[in-house]
């Protein structure tokens, strides 16, 4: 097996009293697309900052592209591309000028610059707009330009911190098309963070992070399989009678959700024929849903990602209040 | 937003262009200095409004103040010397003052708009970034000075190549030092309003105390001490010396209007004066570099 391109061991980051990252360990293999999924404030951005040499760990170690993030900072920087949550473009320069600036800072050889610039700009569909000032770009175009810029010096790992936050759904999906496309073209490892469940599905592997700890790490399929049950929703002529009947006949707890009789059962497709055969209530409609990453998050943390964000907010506020009182 | 299809020949370029990034070193750092410097020039060229607005004040001083006060203050000057001529070196210094500080202020903007981060995560030394920024500020500010220099005739100053080269050199030194000062401040002050307020608060007194608008001799003791403490004094005085020595005026009159800086009666030589400014620029630059090493 090849050496992992990201290797994190027992990483801890403390900000004053707050422990943002609480001892995490994981590896990312070359060529993988690895995603950190978790609510805001779970420790995703802190971890990515440490990996990008923008913050020093309180404890533990991390290696990226074979280099230590504390001791070999410049070597790490040379081998990574970064796309942050907030834009880091100079909007008074053109797209091309932004890329040239980057190329000079990273020392991209001049002979390779022009073809490489063409390649990355083509990849994100901005070659035709390269002469326009970035101030005239839409939000999605800016993000794409940042992705192109992050790739310009041919990094081994591309870090995307919430690459689609603040974009409308259509632009989000187009950004993902570009990311998936670049995986085909470039020999690159992608490390991203997101709090969108649907985006995490694009990853080869996902680490679910909550309260500064990794609670699960696996492929999206395996994670969903680990939840075990599918969600079945039916509507019937008499829902209350149906709920009672399901309990009596199959021993399953059903409840009303979204106006439908809802219950979880293993191998939902195989269960549906039995349901039709044995349920006396007339069934008007039926739907079977595989577990989503939402269900996964729920099953590992006992709450939905939205609930988790609400509590993180409360916790931070509570901490701020304590901090103020303490002064 | 529609999903755009990339241009047709994109498909042909499936093989990734091999990019090999070289080891860090002096050449790399020089390339970084160069691009940071060039970015200042590009942004300045694109920002015509800034060019015009920062020229308004010195031109106001030269024409309006120079002409208006001329009838009053002119009597104290030797015969045949216009008040406009007298304040011309000071106005030259003023023309670079605001542009240099504004160039440094762009670091505060860069931080606010995130671009600073793009620079700070790059595998180049912080000193390369700071030096590039200071050189950029110095160049852009000196361009401004050139516009005032072109107006020499209005102030009855001859268009003399030697004089112009001397003055340009002095303007470069002044604007580099001012930008270094601004960059040092920008390392600490993260908010634009605070930065502007503080630098304005410091720059105006520095300008007024530098003797840019009045001669340094015959001042009350308190003001005399303050002018000697003002670093700008040590650049305005050599500039005045350069300009007036190219005018056709008798030595005695020259001494009266351009007395030079004196310490307890000893006249500070022009070389020492300039050397002190250069040293201060270097020290400010050093502090700025240390400050930016510490951020993130």
List keywords for this structure.
heterodimer, A: 327 residues, alpha/beta, Rossmann fold, Alpha-Beta Plaits, 2 domains, 6-stranded mixed β-sheet, 4-stranded antiparallel β-sheet, 14 strands, 42% helix, 26% strand, elongated, disordered C terminus, B: 296 residues, mainly alpha, two-stranded antiparallel ribbon, 11 helices, 2 strands, 70% helix, disordered N terminus
> Could you state the order of secondary-structure elements of chain B as H and E?
HHHHHHHHHHEEH
Helix-strand pattern of chain A = EEEHEEHEHHHEHEHEEHEHEEHEHH
Alpha plus pi helix count of chain A? 12
User: Which structural class is indicated by helix and strand composition of chain B?
Assistant: mainly alpha
The helical percent of chain B reads: over 70%
Question: Helix segment count of chain B?
Answer: 11
> What is the CATH C level class of the largest domain in chain A, in words?
Alpha Beta
CATH architecture heading of the largest domain in chain A = 3-Layer(aba) Sandwich
Rg of chain B (C-alpha, Å): 23 Å
Q: Span between N and C termini of chain A? A: 53 Å
Q: Total number of β-strand segments of chain B?
A: 2
Strand order of the largest sheet of chain A: 6-7-8-3-9-10
Distance between the termini of chain B: 36 Å
Mean pLDDT of chain A: 86
Main sheet summary of chain A:
6 strands, mixed
The global form of chain B is elongated
Radius of gyration of chain A: 24 Å
CATH superfamily of the largest domain in chain A: P-loop containing nucleotide triphosphate hydrolases
Low-confidence stretches of chain A: 320-327
Oligomer classification: heterodimer
